[in-house]
Amino acid sequence: MASHTVLPGRCALPPYQNGGVTVIHRRRDSTVAISTGGYGSIRSCKRRNLSCFSTDKITNGTAFVIANDEKYGNKQNISLTPRLYDYILSNVREPEILRQLREETAAMRGSQMQVSPDQAQLLAMIVQILGARRCIEVGVFTGYSSLAVALALPESGCLVACERDARSLEVAKKYYEQAGVSHKVIVKHGLAADILTSLIENGEACSYDFAFVDAEKRMNQEYFELLLKLASSML
Ligand SMILES: C[S@@+](CC[C@H](N)C(=O)[O-])C[C@H]1O[C@@H](n2cnc3c(N)ncnc32)[C@H](O)[C@@H]1O
Question: By the 8 A CB rule, do 108 and 171 touch?
């Protein structure tokens, strides 16, 4: 399987609720870097001269584009206005079970927010494009993104879902059950660094096709090192 790389970033802020940015970028060595996240990601993109697109409703209601990719062949950037983003959200093909999960857990979110429906769709699409069978998620919360991925995996596929919060995991497990994908999800309760280290110690290095992180930004580097040992593709 081809190797892809990650641009470390935060994948936690649904753009329609807060600042958000998605970057899909082909690097000079032909690997692909994809990142989604908030304003930190935008600043990070600027520093790296990467192109990205963003929507922002909270601060001033205007969309903005960072088109600073001269070094990379002046690739075209896509700008989404909030109105267009609302249109996309209302037309995204969100499975009914994911819509239920999103609505049930809206009150629980607080500072821990789910990925948005289009971000989940992107994850599912990556799984399908890669033909991934074995995946890892760091940062499950109540399971929105993991359920989207589990639904996209083949029947024999598996997702190792790492989360430190037991209460959130109970909700996630209920939805895996309802969606009929429990057999594909290996729930791991604990700190991701410990869980990933134990997977490596168990001889599972290089045995995963895709890993995605949606946890704390400051921990990304640590996860990145561990996930690099476990999976061939990452987001
Ligand atoms: C932004 S939420 C994830 C949202 C989730 N991807 C979804 O779509 O619903 C981040 C989650 O990462 C978990 N988390 C943060 N640091 C962690 C760590 N070191 N180990 C395991 N889980 C962690 C938090 O408890 C939280 O539930």
Answer: yes
Pocket test for ligand 1, best of 13, 98, 147, 163 (most atoms within 8 A of CB): 163
Q: Average pLDDT of 1-15?
A: 34
ipTM of predicted assembly, 2 dp: 0.99
Give the separation between CA 45 and CA 120, rounded to whole angstroms: 22
Interval 129-147: pLDDT, tens: 999 999 999 999 999 999 9
Domains detected in the chain: 1-91 (no CATH), 93-235 (3.40.50.150)
Percent composition of the chain: helix, strand, coil (DSSP 3-state, to 5): 40, 20, 40
Q: Which two tokens stand for residue 76?
A: 């075209």
- Which alpha helices (H) appear in the chain, and where do they start and end? 39-48, 82-91, 96-104, 117-130, 144-152, 166-179, 192-201, 220-230
- Residue 167 CB contacts under 8 Å (≥ 6 apart), including other chains: none
> How much is the pTM?
0.71
Nearest-CA residue for ligand 1 atom 9 is: 114
Would you say 20 and 38 are in contact if contact means Cβ atoms under 8 Å apart? yes
Q: Contact at 8 Å (CB) between 35 and 41?
A: yes
**At residue 187, does pLDDT exceed 80?**
yes
